[in-house]
Amino acid sequence: MSLILILEQILNGLQFGVMLFLMAAGLTLVFGVMGLINLAHGALYMVGAFAAAIVAAWTGSFVLALAASLVAAAAAGALVELLVIRKLYDRDHLDQVLATFALILVFSEGTRWIFGSFPLFLDVPSYLSGPVTLPGGIQYPLYRLTIIAIGLVVATGLFWLIARTRIGIQIRAGESDREMIAALGVDISVLYTLVFALGAALAGLAGALVGAIQSVQVGMGEPVLILAFVVIVIGGIGSIKGAMVGALLVGLTDTLGGVFLPRLFGLFMEPASATSVGASLASMLIYILMAVILLVRPSGLYGGQS
Amino acid sequence: MKTLKTMALATAVSTLAMAAAAETKIGMITTLSGGGAGLGVDVRDGFMLAIDQAGRDNVEVVIEDDQRKPESAVQIADRMIQSEKVDIMTGIIWSNLAMAVVPSATAQGVFYLSPNAGPSALAGKRCHENYFNVAWQNDNLHEAAGAYANDAELKNSYILAPNYPAGKDALTGYKRMYEGDLAGETYTKLGQTDYAAEIAQIRASGADSVYFFLPGGMGISFLKQYADSGVDLPVVGPAFSFDQGILQAVGGAALGIKNTSQWNKDLDTPANTAFVAAFEQKYDRLPSLYASQGYDTANLILSALDTADVSDKDAFRAALKAAKFDSVRGAFKFGNNHHPIQNIYVREVIQEGDVFTNKIIATGLENHADAYAADCKM
Questions:
Q1: Where is the signal peptide (chain A) (predicted)?
Q2: B139-261+344-374 — its CATH code?
Q3: pLDDT tens for each residue of chain B, 378 residues long
Q4: Which domain holds residue A10?
Q5: Contact yes or no for A118 and B248 at CB 8 A
Q6: Is residue A181 one of the residues assigned to a domain?
Q7: Measured between alpha carbons, how far is residue B328 from residues B4, B267, B296 in Å?
Q8: Cβ atoms within 10 A of the Cβ of A42, count?
Q9: Which of A213, A218, A252, A276 to mutate to test the interface with B (most CBs of B within 10 A)?
Q10: Chain B contact for A280 (CB, 8 A cutoff)
Q11: Number of domains in chain A
Q12: Is 70 exceeded by the pLDDT of residue A230?
C-alpha cells in the first residue's frame, strides 16, 4: 500500500468532513440557539441541490447555480420558520420531531410532484472537471479540492460572524438566555428567522456542491442528515467549533475505516469474508466513535455543562 | 399524498371490479419514495399498463410504498395477507426486503411473483412452489458480464458492489464466469453516494477494468465521480446502472459503456414494439428495464387467470408455470425452481438526439438458467 494512496484517502476524508460541516453547522446553530430539533434540515439540502440543477439547466452557469442554491434554501428555510417552526419553540422535543418529520414528507412529495421520481442532471463545470496533480504525484479531482476550499472559506466566515460581529454576539446571547436578550431590545423573532435561514442556506450550498458529483434526487438529504446529527453530538450541541472538529473526525474515520479495515482483516482472513466483515465493521465505525466520545465526554467534545 | 394516491387508485379499480363475481386481489409492495423510488415507480407503471390494457373487471390491485425499509415491507405484507386477503403479491425491488417478506408470504399460501429481486437464497434450497421470479435470479446479469469480460479479453478486474444480498450475488455471479484475476474486491455501504475512497483504491490497484453493481442513485454517483477522477479503465456493469431512468442523470459519463440485460427497447419482437409504444404514449417517457419487468409480471398473472381461477391453487400454479404469455423479452420460460431461462444480451450506451439510451450489440448468454436450480427440490 503506497503513501500516495493514504494521502489521497486523507484528502477524501477531509472533503467529506468539510461537506458534513456545512450540513452540521446549520443544525447545531438551530439546536443551540433555538433549542429546536430540525429533522427537515436534510430537505433544505435537497432544495439547494434541486435549485442548483434547475438554474444550471437554464443558464449553464455553475456559479449562478450555487448562488441559486443559497437563495432558494434560505428562502425555503425562512418560509418554514415563519409558517411552522415559530409555533414549535415552546413545545417539547417530541412535538418538534413530529412536526419537522412531517415537513420532510411534505418537501419530498412536493419535490416529487414537481420534478418526478427520476434524478436530475447537474454536472461539474468544465473548468473544474478532471484531476490535478498535487505535490508528491497525487492525482486528485479538482472539483473535490474546490469543495474543500469553499468549505474552509465558509467555516472561517462563520467563525468570524459568530465571534466578531454584533449579530454573532446576539446569537450567542440568545443561546444562553433568550428572555434577557429580548428584554434588552433585540427582536428575537427576527434573529431566529435569520439564524434559521442561515443554517438552511449552508445546507442548500452543501446540497448543490455535492449534487454535482452525486445524484440530485428526492430523499438525498436523509442519509446525510443522520451523519450530521452524529457530528453535532460528537462535537457538542450548539458549538460551531465542535461541528468543525466533529465533521472532520467523522469524515476521516468513515473514509479511512472503509478503506483500511477490510485490508486489516485481509491479513488473517480469506479475502471474500475479510471484505465483507471489514465493510460491515467500517459502517459501524462512526457510531462506535460516537459512543466512545460520549462515554468520555457526555456532552460532546466542545459541549456545555448541561 | 402517497396514501391518497394509492387509495384513489385502489378505489378506482375496485369500483370497476365491484360487479364481478370471481375477484382476484393483487397486493403490490414497492418502493415509491426515497432513494430507490424510480425503480418502484417503473415497476408499478409497467404493471398497471398491462392491467389497464387487459380491461378485466375482476382484478383489483392494491399498491403500497415500502420506502425501501424491510420493517415497513413486513408490516404492509402482514396487513395485505391477513386483513385484505390478497391472493397474489408482487412488487418488491430490493433483495433484503424480499428476504423479509417472501418466505412468510408463500408459507401462508399466497402466490408471490417477483418483478425484480431474485436473491440466491430463494432460488436454491429454499425455493417454494408459490414463489415465481419473472425478472432474473440475481446472479444472471452479472454472469453474462463475466462472460463478456472474457470475450473482451479483460484480465485483471476490480469489482465492487453494495454490502447486501444482491451485492453478494452480483460479485459471486461475475466471478462464476470471469476467468481473469481480481485486482481488488470491495463491498460498499448500501445507499452510499460518495465513491472517492473506492476510486482511489481502483487507481492504486493496477486493474485493467472495473466491474460494478450499484443500482439506482448509487450508480449515478459512482459513474460521475469515476469520469471526473481521471481513472481511464474500461467499465462493465449490469443494466441497473445504465437504465433508461437514470442515464439522463449520468449523462456523457456513461457513453460507450457495455452492460448486460435480458431486455432492451430495441428487441425486435411485436410484443416489445407494442409495449414500448404504449408505455411512451401513456407515461410520456421511454420504458426502463424495471417497467418491462413489471409489464411481464402483470401479463403472466393475466395469462394464468385466463386458464385457471386463483382459488384453485394447483391449477393456477400450473398455469403460471406454463408461462403462456407474450413476454416483451422474446423467449421466456421457467426452470424447475420457477426462475427464468432466457437470453441475456450485451448492450452499449449510445446517444440518440438528446436522449441517452442503449442498443444491443451481442447475445451474452443464450437460454441461460441460474446456478442454484439444481439445489431446488421441486
A1: none
A2: 3.40.50.2300
A3: 455 555 555 555 554 444 444 589 999 999 988 767 889 999 999 999 999 999 988 999 999 999 889 999 999 999 999 999 999 999 999 999 999 999 999 999 999 999 999 999 999 999 999 999 999 999 999 999 999 999 999 999 999 999 888 999 999 999 999 999 999 999 888 888 889 999 999 999 999 999 999 987 888 889 989 988 889 899 999 999 898 888 888 888 899 999 999 999 999 999 999 999 999 999 999 999 999 999 999 999 999 999 999 999 999 999 999 999 999 998 899 999 999 999 999 999 999 998 999 999 999 999 999 999 999 988
A4: 3-296
A5: yes
A6: yes
A7: 32, 8, 7
A8: 26
A9: A213
A10: yes
A11: 1
A12: yes
Ranges assigned E (strand) in chain B: 24-30, 59-65, 88-90, 111-114, 131-133, 156-162, 181-188, 209-212, 235-238, 258-261, 333-334, 340-352, 355-368
Which of B:194-223 have CB within 8 Å of A? 194, 196-197, 200-201, 203-204, 217, 220-221
pTM of the predicted structure, to 2 decimals: 0.83
Distance from CA of A213 to the nearest CA of B (A): 6
Using CA atoms, how far apart are residues B146 and A288, in angstroms rounded to an integer? 38
**Which grid cell sits at A279?**
465493510
Note which residues in 201-240 of chain A have CB less than 8 A from chain B: 210, 212-220, 222-223
The answer to whether the Cβ–Cβ distance between A121 and B228 falls below 8 Å is: no
pLDDT at A291 over 90: yes
Has the ipTM of the complex gone over 0.85?
no
Give residue for cell 443561546: A175
Looking at the DSSP bridge assignments, the partners of residue A131 are A141
Strand partners, A299: none
Strands B209-212 and B235-238: parallel
Here the CATH number for the domain that contains residue A73 is 1.10.3470
pLDDT tens column, A232-263: 999 998 888 999 999 999 999 999 998 888 88
> Is any Cβ of chain A less than 8 angstroms from the Cβ of B188?
yes
Instruction: Map grid coordinates 430539533 to a residue.
Output: A37
Region for B357 from its dihedrals, namely left if φ exceeds 0, alpha if ψ lies in -120 to 50, beta otherwise: beta
Q: How far apart are CA B292 and CA B279, in angstroms?
A: 9
Q: Does domain B24-136+268-334 have CATH number 3.40.50.720?
A: no
Q: How far apart are CA A100 and CA A110, in angstroms?
A: 15
Residue A277 located in a structural domain: yes
Give the Cβ contact number of residue B317 at 10 Å: 18
Would you call B194 and A16 a contact, using CB atoms and an 8 Å cutoff?
yes
Q: In this structure, are residues B106 and B128 in contact, taking their beta carbons and an 8 Å threshold?
A: yes
Q: Are strands B235-238 and B24-30 parallel, antiparallel or unpaired?
A: unpaired
Query: HSE-up of A158 (CA within 13 Å, CB side)?
Result: 25
Within 10 Å of residue A102's Cβ, how many Cβ atoms?
Answer: 13
Interface membership of B35 toward A (CB under 8 Å): yes
Show Cβ contacts of residue B224 under 8 Å, excluding neighbours closer than 6 positions: A123, A124, A212, A213, A214, A215, B250, B251, B253
Does A258 sit within 8 Å of B217, measured CB to CB?
Answer: no
Q: Do A130 and B230 touch (CB under 8 A)?
A: yes
Instruction: Confirm if B348 and B260 have CB atoms less than 8 A apart.
Output: no
Reported residue count of chain A is 306
Q: Where in chain B is the domain with CATH 3.40.50.2300?
A: 24-136+268-334, 139-261+344-374
Does residue A281 lie within any of the structural domains?
Answer: yes
Report pLDDT for B217: 80
A303 belongs to a structural domain: no
